[in-house]
Write a structure and sequence with these properties.
Strand 1, helix 5 and strand 2 form a beta-alpha-beta unit. Helix content is 42%, strand content 15%.
Length: 343
C-alpha cells in the first residue's frame, strides 16, 4: 500500500480553511480563534498528522553550511583566504562548500545558483574578473540570503565586505620605490574593472604626487588577466616607451615575475637598473631570482573575519531588527626583498 503523508493542505481542505490558517493554529498563533485551533488539532490527531521535519529544516535554512565562491583555488592569496574560512567555520560549527568561478561570469552565476539550491545558510563571495553584471547577486540578496563579499566586492549599497587597504598598499609600494631613489616608476595594472586594481593604482598615483615625483602615463600598462605572459608583454612594451622606467610596481606578483623575466632577458640588472615590487606576497615570491619584494595581504585573517561577519548575520534573530551593513578593512605591509632593495 502506498503511504501518503498527511500535510497541512489536507487538513485545510477538510476544514474549508486556508493552509496558512492551519499552520498558525498549529503554532498557537494569537490571531487564530480557540474554536479554530481546537478543530485543527482534533483533525490533525485524527489523521495522524506529523510535521515534515525535512521541510521545516529547508524553510528555516539552518543547514549549518556556508557556501564560498572564489575566482581561483590555485591562486595563493585565495588559498590562504580559504584556509582562514575553513578554520573559523569549523570552530563555529559550520561546514563549507567551496566553488570557483575560474574568472568566468557564467561560472560564477552557476556557482551561486548551485549554492542556493544546496540551501546554504549564507555565502562568501569574491567576484570574477568578468563580473560587470550583478543580477545574480541582487537576486540572492533580494531573497534575504546573508552574503559577505571579500577582496573583490559587490559595488552595491548596504553590502557587507571584508577588504584589504588596497589604496594604502599601492601607496606603500610606490613610497618604497621612491625611498630607493627611483623617479621613473612604471605601473603594470590588473583588470581595470576590478575595484582592487583601481584602488592600488590610485594609491600609487597619490604617493607620486605626495613626493612630487612625475607621473608618466606612457609607463602604465593594463593587463586584463594578470597572467605571467601578460606581465612579460607589458614589460616589453615599457622598455620600448619613450621614458625608460627605473622601477616597476606590478598589480600582482605573477605580473611582476613576468616583468622580471623580460628585464633580465634584455640585459638589465634588478634592482640596479630597474627595481621591481609586486602585490600579494605569494609563497613563490621569495623563490625568484632575485627574491621579489611585495605588498603582503593578510589572507588568512580575511577569511576568518569574513566567516565571523557572515555567521553573525546568519544567527541574528529577526526580532532584533536588521543588522547595519559592515565593512572591515585589513592593513597591508611591504615585504622588502632584493628585487627592490638598492644599496
Amino acid at each position: 500500500m502506498k503511504y501518503n503523508q498527511i500535510t497541512i493542505k489536507d487538513i485545510a481542505r477538510e476544514l474549508g480553511i486556508s493552509a496558512s490558517t492551519v499552520s498558525r493554529a498549529l503554532k498557537d498563533h494569537p490571531d487564530i480563534s480557540k474554536e479554530t485551533k481546537r478543530a485543527v488539532h482534533e483533525l490533525a490527531l485524527k489523521l495522524n498528522y506529523e510535521p515534515n521535519v525535512v521541510a521545516l529544516s529547508l524553510r528555516s535554512r539552518k543547514t549549518r553550511t556556508i557556501g564560498v565562491v572564489i575566482p581561483e583555488v590555485v591562486h595563493f592569496f585565495f588559498s590562504t583566504v580559504v584556509s582562514g574560512i575553513e578554520h573559523e567555520a569549523n570552530l563555529l560549527g559550520y561546514n563549507v562548500i567551496l566553488t570557483q568561478s575560474a574568472e568566468s561570469l557564467d561560472r560564477e552565476r552557476a556557482a551561486v545558483k548551485a549554492l542556493f539550491n544546496s540551501r546554504v545558510d549564507g555565502m562568501l563571495m569574491s567576484l570574477s574578473r568578468e563580473t560587470v553584471d550583478y543580477d545574480h547577486i541582487e537576486a540572492i540578496l533580494n531573497r534575504g540570503i546573508p552574503v559577505v563579499f571579500f577582496d573583490r566586492v559587490f559595488p552595491g549599497q548596504n553590502r557587507n565586505v571584508v577588504i584589504v587597504d588596497d589604496h594604502g598598499g599601492g601607496k606603500q609600494a610606490a613610497e618604497h620605490l621612491i625611498q630607493q631613489g627611483c623617479k621613473k616608476i612604471a605601473h603594470i595594472m590588473g583588470a581595470p574593472n576590478l575595484g582592487i586594481t583601481q584602488q592600488r593604482f590610485s594609491g600609487f598615483q597619490e604617493s607620486l604626487k605626495d613626493h612630487k615625483i612625475k607621473f608618466y602615463p606612457d609607463l602604465v600598462v593594463k593587463c586584463e588577466g594578470g597572467s605571467l605572459e601578460e606581465g612579460k608583454k607589458a614589460m616589453e612594451k615599457l622598455l620600448l616607451a619613450k621614458t625608460k622606467p627605473d622601477a616597476v610596481f606590478a598589480n600582482n606578483d605573477v605580473l611582476a615575475m613576468g616583468a622580471m623575466q623580460v628585464i633580465k632577458e634584455k640585459g638589465y640588472k634588478i634592482p640596479h637598473d630597474i627595481a621591481v615590487i609586486g602585490f600579494s606576497n605569494w609563497f613563490y615570491s621569495q623563490m625568484t631570482e632575485p627574491p621579489l619584494s611585495s605588498v603582503d595581504q593578510p589572507g588568512f585573517e580575511m577569511g576568518k573575519s569574513a566567516v565571523r561577519m557572515l555567521i553573525k548575520r546568519i544567527e541574528h534573530e529577526e526580532d532584533k531588527g536588521v543588522l547595519p551593513a559592515e565593512t572591515i578593512t585589513l592593513k597591508t605591509s611591504v615585504v622588502v626583498r632584493e628585487s627592490s632593495l638598492r644599496e
